[in-house]
Amino acid sequence: MSSQALRYAHQLLDARAQSRIIPRISESEPLSVEDAYEIAHNIRNIRVAQGEQPIGRKIGFVVRKNWERYGIIDDARIPTWAPMYDTTVRFAEDNHGAQSLTGAVQPRIEPEIVFKLGKTPAPGASLIELADCLEWMAHGFEIVVCPFPNWEFTVADSIAAFGLHGTLIVGEPHVLSSATKHHLPQILASASVSLSCNTESSSVLRAAGFCNDEMDSPLHALWHLHQLLQKQSRFRQLQAGEIISTGTWTDACPIEPGQTWTTAFSGVTLPGLTVSFV
Questions:
Q1: Which GO terms describe its cellular component (predicted)?
Q2: Residue 231 and residue 242: Cα distance in Å, rounded?
């Protein structure tokens, strides 16, 4: 796959730069998850060579009940991850922001919990040991994009295509105390979020979500990512300073310029986000 992986990496980067929709890679030949991560590794190397710096990871498909709604057409059904870069992560001032959708292909919005690692976790870190490595927690909007027609793809296609990552907008970080870290799985397990869309003529509740029943909390998603990376020697393991977006709590809703999206939490002391799209 090596030469083909590099070719597909350039093809996907070109489609992103030109805001083009392209056929799924899996349409032309079988594409395994391992093949997809090889393409992703090539993409990472090219982006770094062009001056972008990886600053974290996004976790995808942790909410298993949402898989069918994404147009996934195979049975892989596994959590995935992709790099995030200094060019794709931004912070909203006072939990308000504006974001251009220029160049975003079939954009959708996902409300997520975002962590920053203050310490590098040990290879065999437990859930509580991982929590102890966290520096802060924040609410974020991930703008996901898809270069494939009608948002239809295999899991491997999505891994190769940047993990569908477009932009992460991060709200106000909340530094975590030792006591909060110790109880974080229970705190997050009782939390919920609502997602609303506002225009000049209407305000509509579009989605609501709780922590993922399968993985219990975003902390479990982080643990699964940490375990997966132990098996992927070509990629760097989790490091202190990384920002981790842990997966959506609701369906990924299509977005358009002229809309303002807002969230509100219950069960956890995080402010909502308000972002206007232009």
A1: cytoplasm
A2: 19
Owner of token pair 């270069």: 147
Q: How buried is residue 46: exposed, middle or buried, by Cβ count under 10 Å (0-12/13-18/19+)?
A: middle
Interatomic CA distance for residues 3 and 189, integer angstroms: 44
The pTM (predicted TM-score) of the whole model is 0.93
Residue 10 DSSP SS3: helix
**DSSP-based three-state secondary structure for 127:** helix
Give residue for tokens 């579009």.
206
Give kind and range of the element (H or E) at residue 42: helix 33-49
Give 79's Cβ-side CA count (13 Å radius).
24
Q: Which CATH superfamily is domain 1-277 in?
A: Fumarylacetoacetase-like, C-terminal domain (3.90.850.10)
178-to-117, 130, 183, 269, 271 alpha-carbon distances in Å: 14, 12, 9, 16, 21
Q: What tokens does 112 get?
A: 């997520």
Identity of residue 246? T
Per-residue pLDDT of the chain (278 residues; tens, 9 = 90+): 588 999 999 999 999 999 999 999 999 889 999 999 999 999 999 999 999 999 999 998 765 555 555 666 665 667 899 999 999 999 999 999 999 999 999 999 999 999 999 999 999 999 999 999 999 999 999 999 999 999 999 999 999 999 999 999 999 999 999 999 998 988 888 889 999 999 988 899 999 887 754 455 899 899 999 999 999 999 999 999 999 999 988 889 999 999 999 999 988 889 999 999 99
Position 20, amino acid: R
